[in-house]
Design a protein that fits this description.
The complex is a heterodimer of chains A (about 575) and B (about 130). Chain A has an 8-stranded antiparallel β-sheet with strand order 1-2-3-6-5-4-7-8, with no helix packed on it. In chain A, strands 13-22-25-24-23-26 form a 6-stranded antiparallel beta barrel. Chain A folds into 4 domains: about 100 residues, Sandwich (Immunoglobulin-like); about 90 residues, Beta Barrel (conserved putative lor/sdh protein from methanococcus maripaludis s2 fold), CATH 2.40.420; about 80 residues, Beta Barrel (Elongation Factor Tu (Ef-tu), domain 3), CATH 2.40.30; about 140 residues, OB fold (Dihydrolipoamide Acetyltransferase, E2P). Chain A starts with a helix and ends with a helix. The radius of gyration of chain A is 46 Å and the shape is elongated. Chain A has 9 helices and 32 strands. Helices cover about 25% and strands about 35% of the residues of chain A. Chain B is mostly beta strands and about 130 residues long. The chains are: A alpha+beta (about 575), B mainly beta (about 130).
Chain lengths: ~575, ~130
């Protein structure tokens, strides 16, 4: 056996030992990950269970402030009872000091060292036992008694001598380097009289500068000290974000527990709100005429009208020739009526000597003439009623009293706000012609609209297929013509992943979208994820997130802004 | 030594880490059927039945630890009542036992506060043994 081979064998034998050491604790480090708070933070204790999450902050004199939240969604738990035990001994009940904030003071807590705390939480019918460890550091030794300048001088005369010598040297150098007045280039002239005050000011002003700086420092110093004592959210060196509990409460951070689910991927289309053709009406006169108001005047925009309600009248207008013809016809009819009346009267007197049939005929003819005259009356003097064709809200008014309108001119539009449709155009053949399982839309104000598919047109419009959807329950304030984004579940493909509200997703300036995982009570870790849109308000996380993680779904954008 | 023996040794070397990494994570079931949690440097496995808690201790490599050197107590929350029970080691050192008046209900919560051995600092762990 060669020496090389022996070496190899030895190395091979040593490998398992090394690997065993390395593997013994992979992904498993006995609680060190809880030390998430930065070192500068006050002593704190964190404890969590399946139901609750508790953060305690130790103030001066053993004052422990506790924040109690739900573990799953980070909602504050108010009105709970928290019994605190220290190293197996109960030390008291924390009393409520603010909403879901509790406080307890005990001198034993202030003692330096590691305290094992137990918290018995009773909230409503729930009871839980939590455990946490509070590490109180040794109080930093009080700063040494101020070492006065005089003492230093007395102790170190050599230093004083060196300092004085250096000062003298500096003064000498400054003196030597001082600028000297150059010899005048021209004949010396009498110096011009200086403006009063201009010459005296500079020395004073020069002295005021450093003084001002000193005053500013004195004023700022307490502020700086205060800022150091306060805890602010900040980004930790590993990229995670430290958000103290009070800040979490202010930001209103809420989480959900990620669960794997199945969903249908969706397509987004551009659409707009259109009225339901069966619930919209246009009011158009059938002939040219002059607008006259109804009994209650002309309808106003937004006024609710009933079907058949008279909105306005149109008095017909005629040209001179038309009017002449009409009047001629009327005069002719009037003459014929007069003749027929005379004939009926004459025949009536001769009753018995003429045939009854003849009298009947004359009467019928007179009646017919009168009816013809009556039918002509409204044409000459009458007017046309403009009625609401459907019940709804007046959404367009193009009329003024006395206005002359043409036939077929739209004077009013009536829309039923409870019956609106969305028209979208689909370019993608799968969406355009595939089965549509469901659809939602996002309105201009971000409102979510549930849609029912109505049908699709087969005539292309701008090389796209128009699709019609019915809005299940149109919200108030949705206008006809408003642009909407339609999210269509088309096709039968199902994808696996974690379904999250769209608000959980944060898009940084660069890189992939990010969600924040609530890893520790006060620590949030950004996780880059790959997502697919599901509908207007949900996204599907396909990769980058483990099931069971608590994901921030509210105020995620605010967490992302912490620097 | 033949080339065959050398190959075998190498294979054994590669396989060993796989065996070593099969250890008990926190929250899993231990060899005695109880819940396992980390207590300080050790793993603790807690079994609960009416009136009795049994705690087994294991080191990093899941070898049993002599319980006679450990001492501690258990805070038990069961059925709305809380008790603090002291642990006592079994004479053979195989486990620690705490006895008291409680019922092993599913929402039993136990916090074990333990000094695992001389020179090892006090540690605690929370168990939900019957979940």
């Amino acid at each position: 056996m060669t020496a090389t081979r022996r070496c190899l064998l030895l190395g091979a034998a040593a490998l398992p030992l090394a690997a065993r050491r390395a593997a013994a604790h992979a992904g498993h480090d006995h609680g060190e990950e809880d030390a998430a708070a930065p070192a500068s933070a006050a002593p704190r204790v964190t404890a969590s269970s399946e139901a609750f999450e508790l953060v305690g902050l130790l103030g001066p004199d053993g004052a422990l402030t506790l924040w109690l939240d739900r573990f799953a969604d980070n909602a504050p738990v108010d009105g709970a009872t928290i019994l605190v035990g220290l190293d197996g001994q109960e030390i008291g009940e924390a009393r409520r000091v603010a909403e879901a904030v509790y406080a307890l003071r005990h001198e034993a807590l202030a003692r330096p060292g590691t305290h094992d705390l137990t918290f018995t939480v009773t909230a409503g019918g729930e009871m839980d036992l939590l455990a946490g460890t509070l590490a109180v550091p040794e109080p930093t030794a009080p700063a040494a008694a101020p070492h006065g300048l005089l003492e230093t001088v007395r102790e170190q005369p050599v230093l004083l001598g060196i300092g004085a010598g250096l000062l003298a040297l500096g003064a000498l150098l400054g003196r030597l380097a001082a600028p000297r007045p150059l010899p005048p280039m021209a004949e010396p002239e009498p110096a011009p009289a200086r403006a009063p005050g201009a010459g005296e000011a500079p020395p004073l002003r020069r002295a005021a500068g450093p003084l001002r700086c000193l005053a500013l420092l004195v004023l700022l110093a307490p502020g700086l000290a205060l800022a150091q004592g306060m805890e602010a959210p900040r980004r930790l060196p590993d990229g995670s974000v430290f958000v103290p509990k009070p800040s979490q409460r202010l930001l209103g951070i809420r989480t959900v527990i990620a669960e794997t689910g199945e969903a249908t991927p969706t397509t987004r289309l551009v659409g707009r709100v259109v009225p339901d053709p069966n619930a919209t009406g246009r009011v158009q006169p059938s002939q040219a005429g002059r607008i006259e108001p109804g009994e209650a005047g002309l309808p106003a925009l937004g006024q609710r009208v009933e079907q058949g309600q008279v909105l306005a009248w149109v008095a017909p207008i005629y040209s001179a020739a038309e009017r002449g013809q009409l009047q001629q016809g009327a005069a002719e009819l009037d003459a014929q009526i007069t003749i027929a009346e005379a004939r009926v009267a004459r025949l009536a007197r001769l009753q018995g000597s003429v045939a009854d049939r003849e009298i009947q005929d004359a009467r019928t003819e007179l009646q017919g003439l009168r009816q013809r005259r009556a039918a002509l009356n409204p044409v000459i003097a009458g007017r046309e009623a403009l009625r609401a064709p459907v019940a709804g809200v007046v959404s367009a008014v193009a009329a003024a009293v006395g206005q002359v309108v043409d036939a077929r001119e739209t004077v009013f539009e009536v829309v039923d706000p409870a019956r609106l449709w969305v028209e979208a155009v689909a370019f993608d053949p799968a969406t355009a012609f595939g089965p549509i399982a469901g659809a939602t839309a996002t309105g201009p104000a971000g409102e979510r609209l549930a849609l029912d598919f109505v049908g699709r047109g087969l005539a292309l419009r701008q090389q796209a297929v128009p699709l019609n959807f019915r809005i299940a329950a149109p919200p108030a304030g949705l206008a006809v013509g408003a642009p909407v984004t339609v999210t269509v579940e088309a096709g039968a493909r199902r994808v696996q992943g974690i379904v999250l509200p769209a608000a959980a997703l944060v898009r940084p300036a660069e890189g992939a979208p990010v969600v924040f995982e609530h890893a520790a009570p006060e620590r949030f870790i950004p996780r880059q994820v790959r997502t697919e849109p599901l509908d207007a308000s949900r996204v599907l996380v396909a990769a980058g997130l483990e099931p069971g993680a608590r994901v921030v779904v509210q105020a995620a954008g605010l967490v992302a802004q912490v620097r | 030594m033949t080339r065959r023996a050398f190959t075998l040794a190498l294979l054994a070397a590669l396989a060993a880490p796989g065996l070593a990494s099969a250890h008990m994570p926190a929250g899993a079931r231990g060899p005695n059927g109880g819940q396992v949690q980390d207590i300080g440097p050790y793993h603790g496995e807690l079994l609960a039945r009416d009136g009795e808690l049994v705690l087994f201790l294991f080191d990093h490599n899941d070898r049993p630890v002599d319980a006679r050197r450990a001492s501690g107590n258990a805070v038990v929350l069961a059925g709305g009542h809380q008790h603090t029970l002291p642990f006592e080691a079994r004479p053979d050192g195989s486990a620690l036992v705490a006895r008291g008046e409680f019922h092993a209900v599913p929402d039993l919560r136990v916090v074990v506060q333990l000094v695992p051995g001389p020179g090892i600092s006090r540690a605690q762990a929370r168990f939900t043994p019957l979940r």
